[in-house]
Amino acid sequence: MKVLDGKALAGTIKEELKLEVDTIRLAGGKIPHLAAVLVGEDPASQVYVRNKVRSCEKVGFKSTLIRRGADVTQTELLEIVDQLNKDPDVDGFIVQLPLPKHLDEDAINLAIDPKKDVDGFTPVNIGMMTLGLPAYLPATPNGIMTMLDRYGIETSGKEVVVLGRSNIVGTPMSILLSRKGNPGNATVTMCHSRTKDMEFHTRRADILVAAIGIPEMVTADMVKEGAVIIDVGINRVDDATRDRGYRLCGDVDYKGLESKVSAMTPVPGGVGPMTVVSLLMNTLKASKRASHA
Ligand code: NAD
């Protein structure tokens, strides 16, 4: 089985980005600038945002972290979004999800200027993506597409099954893989919580993308011999043998599938690092667009 090593691939792409930023700097151009808004104390969100900021530094981007407590009001958060929309130095920004329950995520998302929406979550970017027009693609699906491309995994004419229909992973993933293009041109089936007999679908999959959020739910009996497995899930499960008291695992039983499938992403070190790198690629794109506007 081939390990689809997202960590190594993300490292390679970061080197490429760094070279590009160095060239921009030498030419006296604008250094790409990503801002991240983090609300509250959610431990996973803190880790994700820290990784994003660190990755910016590694490739020579400018980054700004804006932190607010879990008690921030909707009006205050909308004001921050408005300022970031207007700040000419900020090329792109993200508001880390999930937000505390009292905040309206949809309203915040709708307030983000699509030109700075490097997470690719706003309706304009989702619509442009669906129509096959230039858009900021959502970071995780874009990272997976980059991975399929760089690892030379054929998708054309393949049976792809996507588990999960979230707006940030499952739905855009199914659109991108069924679109005309390379990677793309696949026959896509999307399964979700109301799917009857999910195993029937997963067993037919040449490529299986799991984005459900249930630890190790996909077991060896559910997949086809030689399938390619993309495990998006990041789940914390209790583990008393670890200092921190938990371990991370995906939606797929990695050990159980190892001897049956042809290629698979590990968790951690698979899709996660590709998500971060794809945010950086979008920010560079935004920066280039802004300087040519
Ligand atoms: P979500 O948590 O918003 O939704 C889960 C989806 O799974 C829903 O569409 C639901 O219909 C489906 N589902 C739930 N139970 C199911 C079942 N029993 N059978 C079939 N489908 C079922 O989804 P999300 O935000 O896409 O997150 C999914 C997982 O991916 C989580 O573990 C999350 O932490 C992880 N994630 C990882 C990255 C990354 O960079 N690696 C990025 C985003 C999300």
Structural notes for this entry:
The protein is an alpha/beta fold. The protein folds into two domains: 28-113, Rossmann fold (3-Layer(aba) Sandwich), CATH 3.40.50; 139-272, Rossmann fold (3-Layer(aba) Sandwich). It contains ten helices and eleven strands. It has helices spanning 6-26, 43-59, 74-86, 105-111, 123-131, 139-150, 170-178, 198-202, 254-257, 271-292; strands spanning 2-3, 33-39, 62-68, 92-95, 159-163, 187-191, 207-210, 228-231, 235-238, 246-249, 263-264. The chain has a six-stranded parallel β-sheet. Strands 3-2-4 form a three-stranded parallel β-sheet, sandwiched between helices. It has a two-stranded antiparallel sheet with strand order 9-10. A hairpin with a 7-residue loop joins strand 9 (235-238) and strand 10 (246-249). It is globular and about 50 Å long. It starts with a strand and ends with a helix. The mean pLDDT is 96. Bound molecules: nicotinamide-adenine-dinucleotide. The site of nicotinamide-adenine-dinucleotide has 24 residues, from helix 10.
Keywords:
alpha/beta; Rossmann fold; 2 domains; globular
Order of helices and strands: EHEHEHEHHHEHEHEEEEHEH
**Beta fraction:** 15-25%
Report the major sheet.
Answer: 6 strands, parallel
* Unreliable residue stretches: none
Domain count, please report it: 2
- Identify the bound ligands: nicotinamide-adenine-dinucleotide
Residue share in helix: 40-55%
